[in-house]
User: What shape does this take?
Amino acid sequence: MTITIALPSKGRMKDDSSAILERAGLKITAIGSDRSYRGRVEGRDDIEIAYLSASEIAREIGNGTVDFGVTGEDLVREDLSNVDTRVEFCARLGFGHADVVVAVPEIWLDVDSMADLGDVASEFRARHGRRLAIATKYWRLTQQFFSRQHGIQLYRIVESLGATEGAPAAGQADIIVDITSTGSTLKANHLKILTDGIILRSEACFVRARKAEHEGDAVVQEIVSRVKTALG
Amino acid sequence: MPLIDMPEFSGELLDEFAARKTMRVNTPVIQPAAPFLDMAGEDLRRRIFLTESETGESLCLRPEFTIPVCLRHIETATGTPKRYAYLGEVFRQRRKGGNEFYQAGIEDLGDSDVAAADARAIGDAFGILNRLLPGQTLSARLGDQKVFEAVIAALGLPLGWQKRLVQAFGDTAQLDALLESLVSPKPMTGLDARVAGLLATGEEKVLVDYIDSVMQETGYSTNASRAPQEIARRLREKLALAATRLPDDSFQLLKQFLSLQAPLSEASKTLSDFAEKAKLKLGAALADFDARVAALANGGVDLGSVTYGAAFGRPLDYYTGLVFEITQEGQTAVLAGGGRFDRLMTLLGAKDTIPAVGFSLWLDRIEAARTSA
Assistant: This one.
């Protein structure tokens, strides 16, 4: 069996994940040009590297078409239902830090917590003739956090695929759920994070697809333990 | 309509609907998704089958009948009172059972005699189930949000808290967490000194002006959904609540109330005993409750088979009073469930308030109950 590891196809995520694998004794060499989307591990015919976009990696791990992948926890948790039965988060890699947060307009002086937001949401329809609108690309995480963790049902999600921070000022939505690493974009758009509004503290993770054939497979175990050891 | 694939007892069901003086209606299977998501909340999105029209409108396969039947009523504007019945397929992603299944039910719109209409809905549900499941013992659970509302009003809790508690009613975990937080409120945080100062002046206008000026400066005012007045008002309300805590005796009484359970034949006495001991005036809510019990008894419903649970409700804002569920005795699968939703019609766009009560029958579960007998 050949084990496939999916890595981000570009940018810092690509470099950082290659570096970790190299520290784990799995040095990657490109097949053909370094623009190629396939790679191999030096001296290992049983391991293959596939370069994919970060969000595709989450999906492919979920489908089991790759065995391992490096990608953000936020993308895995957003893309896959019943995530913990389908994948194993083997290691947190210490880069790609970003938080998925609930942010509201700074001028909502009366809203500081999810409980406040629940109050506002419950009256929103009566006051404004529509439900509170949340702009986000994180449908699943938003629903889990609002509906199940905080018992807030009365809101609508407005899909936003980019520049989400601008949605409240533009009138597309009232509040947002988005990813932030330093908070500076939120600030620049006069948004504030609720005190208990951190949905997920995400970072790049080494993730395994839970596949039956991994059971007792020496190579799978070796890869996991190498990565863990490399991270100390 | 061809009866192929329909439950084999459909004929009996339609006879019952006719005998109960209802008008059978059908609604399109493909429905606009917005009303369902607006009414039931975003959580429903995971459980319905969504698609999009060519023009980008969000559509879904009919996940239930109440909203389509009510929308149809508003569109056709034929006036009330009306008793509608439906029987057809609904589509939902379920953990157990198929994704498409038959549902039937009755929606009773516009009867202002609340007690009588409530009792009729429960009586209809029992009557139909008794016909479909002859010889089987049924039992029901009944709740009443109005009684809960009366208790928290009689306790003199601040309006802001009352709203939150009513919002959480029916969701035990949320309600418990909320009560705990009211006993030990946290001081208000997140205010900068300037706002705190403005708030301390007690002058609404200064605060509103300040909020307005910040909105102007930050380019937020053009599309602001919440106006400066709304934010200022709620800020004031929140400040007042942060300074108060739920007294221990009120907390204990609420806990005690929420744990009340009694067969319906004794529920009126249980409630009045509670009110008397707690020295709470529940007046109209109890009178309405008693009137419903009396109407049920008149309608021939066995009060011993119905259990009142004070904490039983639905955490959706259009349910306003009665809720009930009927099962086979000792079983958990709900065969019929319903309640009063006086707020739904106006939320859906009706101009006037239309009192409404109804129930739906889970035909696949009824079918299973028929074969297991």
